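Changelog entry: the Galactose oxidase record was regenerated in this release. Current contents:
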Amino acid sequence: MQTMAYSSNSLRWQSLSSLPNPLGLAAPLAGVSNNALIVAGGTNFPDAPPWKGGKKVWYDQAFILENAQGSWKSGLKLPQPIAHAVSLSTEEGVLVMGGGNAEEHFKEVFLINWRDNALNLKNLPPLPQPCAFAAGARLGDMIYLAGGITRPGATEALQTFWALDLNHFNKGWQELPPWPGPGRILPVAGVQDGAFYLFSGARLYPGPDGKAKREYLRDAYRYRPGTGWQQLADLPRSAVAAPTPSLPLGRSHLLVLGGDDGSKVDFQPPDKHPGFSREILDYDTQTNTWKIYGTTPAPYVTTTIVPWLGGFVVPGGEVRPAYRTNDIQIVYPVVD
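Regenerated structure tokens:
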């Protein structure tokens, strides 16, 4: 198989209209239905960051962008506030899996379809158990979902790997053998060359106060249907909560945009936190090697990547602890 060559300037970034929520959102649902980009749910701190007594708020708002030069439609709502779900585009609409709010995590799965200026929801078979902070990707007609936690405040992450056949919703979710590594939250998923990839994430364990502490992971795995899991070369650094699924480049590369490398945990003072990594990591699926691939102008975490109009949208996210952005970027891979 011939590998396409890309230079460091082979990503072209463009700003889209800013999201109508001026504070921005972390962990929103995002996907495409009937060629329209949907961004919904998510969280922010409208009054103050938590170290100043602020409370996190979950949203049920939904916003629609019907073309790259247009402005957002607002005034739409989901049935309830939700964030940290896995959301992926399908032919029938945006598939939303799990997620949660301050009190609970969900196992519900549903499709959002944008039609006749309205959001139409369709319930699908639920997950085997409640799950948020997971990662997933679509490989052909299969949806794969990995990791997460079952409830707010959990001190152990799931080591679960679930699959749903888009052609046979009625069969529900299938539990598959998990990757040969620790459970994790906020990993990065990806699809390339007929396989599902799982990168980084954070292992959870109870700290001295009983609250969850994070171990920032650098391990990587590939799942090939019919063959199973294979451990891959470690990432050069952790990339916890980087936009997911990772950006496919050509036929044999996956790009991980930024992420939290764990180097600024407990940074003081928190208001001066410099933000998360801008470094783009490039994984070559043929040579099982990593390299640095320039920098991203959108170093946002706890967000997703949405294929749309020949590019890939990064719909806002978290720029530093407790602070979000309503900046929406679309990146177009450019072949040399």
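The CA atoms of residues 136 and 254 lie 15 Å apart.
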